[in-house]
Specification:
The structure holds two protein chains of two kinds. By secondary structure, chain A is an alpha+beta fold. Chain A is built from five helices and seven strands, in the order H-H-E-E-H-H-E-E-H-E-E-E. Chain B starts with 14 loop residues before the first helix and ends with a strand. The chains are: A alpha+beta, B alpha+beta.
Chain lengths: 184, 142
């Protein structure tokens, strides 16, 4: 019986490309395509800008050159009618703030004894909780809304008495925008 | 006596034995990477990127705007992409002041939507000649 050596009788044609080479090439191609699609469909994050714009808008209508707006105490959120006042006063669109659940804002007035009057609140209160958690723990949640809290000194009048206080405004946004599906 | 053979002499052979597989392989690689580069280029300059960028840019502008403001935005790239995708010019920008959204469509299918919280009446038109988008913040909504 003829003893076959490992290297004998191993004849073969030279192939243009081996299966393994085609597989590697395909994997490289799929990798690049997936990478490009993920990169270019990624969302541009403008939430930081939005919370600053929302803060600016609320601050401009509640803080009138260092003095609290005269009708601040009528802008509480006891009922829907009163909630709408802050939207009218600051030209905010309630359809967007309430319907999308992407936004939240809150304004509180403090004097040396604590909070004065009712806080003015609008939007999704879920963000209020999340922002508080982020603030307390210092954690950074990628899926949580972006939050902003600014305190500014303010003069106000209550019961005929002039006082110095602090106006605290919190804003939050979790708007990422959305792709429109076909036909919309 | 064994004849000494130089490196060059007696190396005859058919050119097809060695060169054709190399050329074909090189062509396959060239085609493959050209296709990949073309795909990356199309993705980078396609509707997907510009729809989102324009929608967010306009949305943020409207958030900051006050009544009486007029914006004139360079819209050349948007018109170019829309033309490439056969999108209708009148459908490119849709701004709804009451519901507070801006939609940008640079292709026949899909698009991008972004919400703005300012409560003003907005008017917009595309100046095709100068390739600009004109947005006017007119007045407060009732």
């Amino acid at each position: 019986m003829k003893n076959l050596d490992l290297f004998e009788d191993k004849k073969g044609d030279e192939k243009i490309m081996s299966l393994w080479e085609i597989f590697v090439l395909m994997m490289v191609g799929v990798g690049i395509v997936v990478g490009v699609l993920v990169y270019y469909s990624a969302s541009i994050d403008v939430r930081e800008t939005e919370i600053n714009l929302l803060y600016e808008k609320i601050a401009l209508c509640l803080n009138e050159d260092g003095y609290l707006a005269d009708d601040y105490f009528e802008l509480g959120n006891k009922n829907e009618e009163e909630v709408l006042n802050i939207f009218e006063k600051c030209n905010l669109n309630p359809n967007v703030i309430f319907d999308t659940s992407d936004f939240y804002f809150e304004a509180r007035l403090y004097d040396e004894n604590g909070i004065v009057g009712e806080p003015i609140v609008g939007g999704s209160t879920l963000h209020q909780t999340n922002c508080q958690i982020l603030e307390d723990t210092g954690a950074k949640g990628k899926e949580f809304a972006k939050c902003l809290k600014i305190r500014e000194p303010i003069k106000f009048e209550i019961n005929g008495e002039s006082k110095n206080g602090v106006l605290e405004i919190r804003t939050a946004s979790n708007q990422r925008g959305s792709r429109i599906s076909t036909g919309q | 006596m064994k004849k000494r053979r130089s490196l060059i002499v007696d190396k005859s052979g058919e050119i097809g034995d060695t060169m054709y597989p190399v050329i074909i392989r090189a062509l396959v690689y060239l085609l493959f990477f050209s296709a990949i580069l073309y795909f990356v280029y199309k993705s980078a300059t396609g509707a997907l990127v510009y729809e989102q960028a324009y929608a967010k840019e306009i949305g943020l502008m409207l958030d900051k705007a006050r009544p009486g403001t007029t914006f004139s935005i360079d819209f050349e790239k948007a018109l170019e992409v829309a033309e490439k995708n056969d999108a209708l010019v009148e459908r490119i920008v849709e701004i709804n002041s009451e519901l507070g959204y801006v939609k940008i469509r640079l292709a026949n299918e899909g698009g991008y939507e972004f919400r703005f919280f300012n409560n003003y009446k907005i008017e917009n038109e595309i100046d095709e000649e100068n390739k600009r988008l004109i947005i006017r913040v007119v007045e407060e909504l009732a």
